[in-house]
Amino acid sequence: MKNKQATEIFRNFLKAGKNRITPERFEVMDAALEYEGHFGADDLYIVMKNSKSSVSRATVYKTLELLAHCDLISKRYFGDNINRYESSFKKQVHDHLICVDCGRIIEFSDPEIKKLPQLISDKLGFNFESYSFNIFARCKDPKECKFYREE
Amino acid sequence: MKNKQATEIFRNFLKAGKNRITPERFEVMDAALEYEGHFGADDLYIVMKNSKSSVSRATVYKTLELLAHCDLISKRYFGDNINRYESSFKKQVHDHLICVDCGRIIEFSDPEIKKLPQLISDKLGFNFESYSFNIFARCKDPKECKFYREE
DNA sequence: ATTGCTGCAAAACGTTTGCACCTAT
DNA sequence: ATAGGTGCAAACGTTTTGCAGCAAT
Fold first, then answer.
1. Residue A52 φ/ψ region, left for φ over 0, alpha for ψ in the -120 to 50 degree band, beta for the rest
2. B109 in reach of chain A (CB within 8 A)
3. Do residues B134 and B148 both lie within one domain?
4. Do B30 and B62 share a structural domain?
5. In this complex, do A79 and B79 lie within 8 Å of one another by their Cβ atoms?
6. Nearest to A33 by CA among A56, A58, A63, A59
């Protein structure tokens, strides 16, 4: 229970959906919000395991879905068959550019894009829920790209 | 070799990349361009198998990647752990709205979105390659949504 | 007391790989 | 001749599931 405000949000979300308040879920929440950058469910499981947590892999997977549903974390997909997450608590909404050569991920934020999903959903007769926007591109400087890949 | 124009495009792409021109690759190309709507690699493999093709699963997977690289098909991801493809030959570029309740997929096209990926890539110092834009939303009319789910 | 949650291991799933044979160049 | 592609089955890595016991309500 390292983050009081997030704990409150998660707790209320769980209550509202008639999900139980368990210590394991808050353990996963803390670890997820602490993780720097993007992580797969298994990455987080390993980190927790290494810090002596006894939360199971299944619980990690399930809890991450819950956290994504209450917008404490965001679910991402960069095209490599792994679902990734990242904390979105107190972080500004952003999208991603992925270098298809070196895999580097650049975060950016565009006011134009932010408002479009809501508008389009309305126009098509849907209630907007979330969106994903990824750009795949190549570093202009191949040296820089190679450098990044090697580290 | 059902589609002369696409065959030509694919053949040139293969030559340019020093990939060999094989009958299997064109079998996959034909099947992929004929497929109505979005399909997983395995879906296509089953269809081909059922029409007595002897192309292997591995070849289907590999060839779909090649077809995506020369833009004859587009690779999609709708958040359910399956990579999907759809023909993009002679089809206008479009994006997708997915109903998170019933799974229905609506295709739409927005001029604003089309031009942004290129612009943003330039601004960030990358060479634009491709992009993906998905909106997740809910049918406004739950009945309509339910109806769709049940069929 | 009743559900729902957990941990564990096994299974499931889509996808990739290793290998021997084959074929386009 | 040789590099590259194919088919097959087995392996892979991520994710989900079944189940018995446990814990939040």
1. left
2. no
3. yes
4. yes
5. no
6. A63
